[in-house]
Amino acid sequence: DQCATVTIQTDSRDAALYTVQNCPTSGNGICLAQSIGSPNNKITQLLSLQAGVDYYFVVSSSTSDPCHKFDIAVKPIDLDGKICADAIMVPLLPSIFRDQTTRCKGNDYNSTQANGSNYLNGNETVYRYDSPGGECLSVNLSRVSNGAGLYIFRGCPDAVGSACVAMDSVVISFPPPYGRREMTSADIQYDVNIPGTYYIIVSNPGGGDTDYDLTIASSSSNEGATCTTPYNLNGLDQPVEGYTTACKGADYVGVI
User: Fold this and answer.
1) How would you classify the pairing of strands 30-36 and 16-21?
2) 127, 90 in Cβ contact below 8 A?
3) What is the pLDDT of residues 26-70, one digit of tens each?
């Protein structure tokens, strides 16, 4: 078995890509994935392919734009990040990991290691970050294709003494009356007081796979925390965006 991506780059926004198991006209063709239209004329599908099975990639066009040119590429998916031993390293912060997936990574960790969270009961991808401590770690999960759990562990989940120190989840809903797909991103801000190795895990809750982008950043947990280390504004009418109360502590409870 193998995991792969199939990508087409076209000169039309109305192109469609279908991945079909067995020939579509054979009577036993099974459509595994379909993607119709793309604002940047590029369509990518992530697939789980089985040995001994014939797959057909069908590129189609609409009646309004019946003729177009395209390039197609089928590439294997890198299986790094399956477990802690081969976790994807986070070399520098900030780091952005685009077009990630839990597909084919396996379900090696579970809810008993994540304070009972069921979102760790599916395929997961593991990232490793070695923290010097004394920082506010910010982790964001976006462009999520399915429900997902986002976790930070101090130590590998199945190691003695490890701990799930932070978690969040992405919920996909189809609210009435239109049944449209609604997604929320997952965000974690964690105050890293203890230096050491931390594992960031993205997991599907089971019954499918999740494709996503992952952003990891860091900032000083002291700046803006107290009057001695405030954020300095540059005068009136000088708005500054992106501040957060995460990792700042509750230093003035009952004072104001």
Assistant:
1) antiparallel
2) yes
3) 788 899 998 887 767 888 888 888 889 999 999 988 666 678 889
Q: pLDDT by residue (tens digit) across 161-197?
A: 999 999 999 876 555 554 545 556 899 999 999 999 9
Return the structure tokens found at 95.
């780091």
Query: Which pTM value belongs to this model?
Result: 0.71
CB-based contact 46:3 (threshold 8 Å): yes
Q: Which two tokens stand for residue 241?
A: 């965006």
Peptide bond into 177 cis (omega under 30): yes
pLDDT per residue as tens digits for the range 210-251: 889 999 999 876 677 778 878 777 777 766 666 667 777 777
